[in-house]
Write a structure and sequence with these properties.
Blueprint: H1 14-27, H2 43-54, E1 57-59, H3 60-67, H4 71-83, E2 87-91, E3 96-100
Antiparallel strand pairs: 1-3, 2-3
Helix pairs in contact: 1-2, 1-3, 3-4
């Protein structure tokens, strides 16, 4: 994953953020049952996976909003699952969307 994996614009898709937040709240109890979560040392990375289960793809801006982080910090938390081929990206003109493989 490239270091420039942040959006050029700061536009948050509120519907995706709300859907992902609601999904995480419903599924919090179940996240201990997934074996692949042992790969992650960071709870934020686990939450990212759950958000992407709720919404097929999210922009770095959306993930930053969901995690209450800067886009640079959100990009940092996305790097490990992307490098482990758990997440992939799709680039738009001014944004980067992440999705679960």
């Amino acid at each position: 994953m490239k270091k420039d994996s942040i959006c050029q614009v700061d536009v948050i898709n509120q519907q995706n953020v709300t859907t992902a937040t609601n999904y995480l709240e419903k599924e919090k109890v179940q996240k201990n049952h997934f074996v692949f979560y042992q790969k992650f040392t960071d709870n934020k990375q686990i939450n990212i996976i759950f958000y992407l289960l709720a919404v097929e793809e999210l922009c770095v801006c959306d993930i930053a909003c969901l995690l209450n982080l800067s886009m640079a910090s959100a990009s940092h938390h996305l790097r490990k699952p992307a490098n482990q081929n758990i997440l992939d990206t799709r680039r738009g003109k001014n944004y980067i969307l992440f999705y679960k493989r």
